[in-house]
Amino acid sequence: WGEIGEIDLAGEAATNSLLADLAVSKLISSANDIGSGGLAVCLSRCAMSQGIGADIDPMIAVGDDGPHRLDALSIFIEGNGVVVSCAPDALERIESLAKQKKLACMRIGRTTSSKLLRVHAIDGVPFITLNVESARQAYSSALECQLAMEVVTA
Prior knowledge:
The protein has five helices and eight strands. The protein has helices at 9-24, 38-50, 69-74, 91-100, 132-153, and strands at 30-33, 53-60, 62-63, 66-67, 82-85, 109-112, 116-121, 126-131.
């Protein structure tokens, strides 16, 4: 399945410490690691679990012939990081706490009540539009089917 990348234990410890501080201070509403599936899957999991939508700031460059394949795939690259949701008035405090722990922190979008997850391309057009409720139903039924198959064959 590929090679295991090096683990930055100090960075992971700082991230976990920050998340604990943010939770205790009630500065965040949710947190989810980017890990498996990359940012796109992380955002989808967050939206499905909370039943909310999000508008994600432009991050994919789109040329006349559409998004470059590698740019488009970059949103699925697995890596380090955590996506948190918070009230707008908590942003500065979160950024300050992250900076104290020498961690990068950036705002990538905002949650919405639209029940749509939209990741925007640099030209402002949504690159990905996901109906959160449809995704939740598909995910739920796939999991139920898989569990049923495992029980029957076990």
